[in-house]
Amino acid sequence: MLDERLVSNLHVHALRRSEAHADRAPHVLFQASTIAALLDGAYEGDLTFAELAEHGDFGLGTLNGLDGEMIALDGRFYRADVSGDVAEVPPSARTPFAVVVPFEATVDVATTELLDAAPVGAVRFDGSFEFVRARSVPRQDPPYRPLAEVAAEQHVFSFKDVRGTLVGFRFPDYASGVEVPGYHLHFITEDRRRGGHVLDYRARSGRLRIDTSSELHVELPPGVELSGEHVDEEELQRIEG
Ligand SMILES: [Zn+2]
Fold it and tell me: For 4-240, which CATH class?
């Protein structure tokens, strides 16, 4: 059904702030900063959620101060706090790391599993779940510590017999440093009241939509570079669970 070659076909394009304004096109992923910068403790960005919304209506990330897990769905931006409670993010709030896309499905199937050989791109799964195990992180104050230390203080919670949506992306291994390789998923319940960063789940039924993408535009804050960055795989495993 899916062409395996698509998995390794992702063009990463770095933008500075001045070039990034209203850079929005179908199937083009837009990202604020890099996962490597976030792992290093760069928890304050200058991009507002109003600006982020110009680049897409679907995605994930976090807020300044690493203040919870962000979920963007159907043009609304939500934050799951450290206990998994969800509220909408004000447009004036800012993000140190986020990925969004104007979501348009290129794959649309009924399934209970995400695809092992899914193409690179945005992944939306609306379904009924036996459980979803998720985490969130407590808001940090400067001086900021690396994410691996903060992750030790994460709160983990399980949602049982729940309906909701997995929101996220699948990136190839060679995107590590820029992005989380493999699946990176956040969850929000159907009533939009609970959510978090997904550690594990089991679905009973659902609808999987994928927006296949071969373009990732990364807006780099001052001092953050794309080249030469490499994320320690073990460190990422600890953090991503
Ligand atoms: Zn996450």
Answer: alpha beta
